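Lay summary. Proteins are chains of building blocks that fold into shapes, and those shapes determine what they do. In this project we predict the shape from the chain. Here is one chain we studied, written as its sequence of building blocks.
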Amino acid sequence: MKAIIGFIEKGKPFFDKLASNAYLQAIRDGFLTAMPAILFSSIFILIAALPEVFGIVLPEAVSSWLWRVYNLSMGIVAILVAATTARSLAENLSRRLPAGMSINIISVMLASITGFMMLAVTEIDGGIDVTYLGTKGLLCSFIAAFITANMYKWCTLKNITITMPPEVPGVISNVFKNVFPFSFSVLVCVLIDTIARNVFNISFAESMIALFSPIFSAADSYPGLMLVAGAMAFFWFLGIHGPSIVEPAVAAALYANVETNLRMMEAGEHATHALTIGMNNFVACLGGTGCTFVVPFLLIWMCKSKQLKAVGKASIVPCCFGVNEPVLFAAPIVLNPYFFVPFLLAPMINVCIFKFFVDVLQMNSFVYVMPWAMPGPLGLFFGTGMAPLALVLAVVLLVVDVVLYLPFIKAYDVTLVAEESRKHEEIVEEEREEAEENKAEEAGSLDHDLNVLVLCVGAGTSAMFANAVNKGAEAENLPVKAKAEAFGAHTDILKDFQLVVLSPQVQSRYDEIAADASQYGIKLVRTKGAQYIQLTKDPKGAVEFVVKEANCKE
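And here is the predicted shape, written in a compact code that computers can read:
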């Protein structure tokens, strides 16, 4: 097994490069930015639909109003994603431009929206067809965003612009500066749609749906679901954030299928599409990637190793809310041969069981988008419209995950117990020496306020780290303030900080963040998995770490 792990680890540089792909990042960050609108709309449709589960019929006026809010928010999500994806990609491309050159991000967003409308909208009597403004148009959103961001980059590099005299105010000059890239971007989209209509006799949006339907249908099969779930776990096992690589590839289907399921359920039909964002969050990633919901409980109740018991206690609450980095890096699970089999098998078996419940037992699949941090069993129950079988499914998934993980955890526990027994005296001595060193070591003094930004993928573990720093600073009376943020949402606030701490999940994007930080002379600090998790639980150690890094000369 160690030989297999070693062989797999050799491919890590390639997978790191894949994880840092600008286009995959743009899709993922675009969805994250648009997520408030998606969750907002889901709340209203949940309010409209759930009373019916209990036999309560809402007044027609109330029901219509709730559906109106849903349709006018979720119904334009493709427009929003066209803008947010373009923004993310344009920011990425702008960082790579020569010094003195930049891309106007707002203009890119507007051009992407306009280009998307050219690709997705068909005129009808009295208005336009809005079919592809929602989740069905997400593929067009990505294409419009990619075209627009690259066109602006090309025009900027070639200096294709309208230059105004120095006397003209900057606001007016910027308007003319972006005329060419805006026009070229939109015209390319117009040309693409025109070709589709003349060659296929349908709009470009319709042709994209027809083209990708077989692929998405294949992804909705047992092998397809296993591939999606297994790939996410495989990448995370290498220490690379798997969902960041896999989700963008099927993002259009993940969200479109939820809306399709909802329409099917409202029509009295069976909601059959298993490949949904809910399946990804609450089945394939039950308790985090690798289905680690049960792992902290097993570590606490079934293990004798002090290390594993401590990890279980520290990670039980985060894992319940889908944040499993504490157990991934502290057990550790990442690159640990003992966990390779259950970490990959649990998600793959979970999705197969879920599809069995949907296809054979006729349980409705996910019809609502729930917040990803909702505890898995609750997300499964509410996301499927409170389907009674969802409660049975939740129990089955937890039992199956226990059966899969328990033998491997026990085997790993035996190894650690033996190791702890052999090295007990050494460990005690090391702990005593470390305690003396920590006692003697001073955090250092600061003659200025220190603002620290902690970045991770979803602002989950970064919030834990930032809270530890703030608690430590308060206890030590140090002028240090820490803030947590998800990667992608940091660019607008970066200038307000003097130190940026990177979680292990965003190591593959170091160069990108370093380019941003260098503009403001901000120091960038990497952390290792076990070190990072340990500091989230050690306020004094966390604040000493950031102060030491801030005082350390590069």
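What the prediction tells us: Residues 439-443 have pLDDT under 50 and may be disordered.
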